[in-house]
Amino acid sequence: MGYGEVSLSWSGIFPFSFRRLSNSYSVQNALLRESAASHTRFRFLKKGSIMLRIGIIGLGFMGKMHYDTYQNLPEIAKVAAICDVDAKKRAGDWSSIGGNLAMAGDAVDLTGVTMYESADDLIRDPDVQVVDITLPTYRHCEYSLKALAAGKVTLCEKTMAGNGAEATKMVDAARAADRILLIGQCIRFWPAYVKARELVNGGAYG
What is the DSSP string of 81-121? Predict the structure, then answer.
């Protein structure tokens, strides 16, 4: 697989075993632990280092979930920057963040994290290596294109884009920039779906 190719699922681009992935937080774990250590498209890392500096754009339910996940991977990931238009969230008051898993936010110590109101400013930050886009779907294409054009590895939440034309633009941009674009199809990593895939590919069914 050549540089700049894109994975529209979580399985097509990284050299890890599905059996090692056990929950919905596996996406970031796989991206960081496996790929940063072995994939040549992370060649901007210093030799022997697998620490990635993450910039999260959007502090809704998924943005908080991604942030919490990175906190569980301190040896390989650091949230270097966060962008949100809500000043209270930028100040660490995440009490307004809710979601479909009843994971209410709380006060968060953001010491050492650069806070941005503008996503463009975060993307331009030279300290950010991976841009994690957790905005509403209609903003995915816009900011994925900007992040890729800036030379950032880009993780974008599902749904990928608002339509096929936008998705094609994102794929083309990743190839042109020679950077990874990864879409958060996390259910493909859940054990039941992994097992179903193994059964189908093994010829037991289908």
Answer: EEE-S-HHHHTTB-TT---TT-----B---TT-EEES-HHH
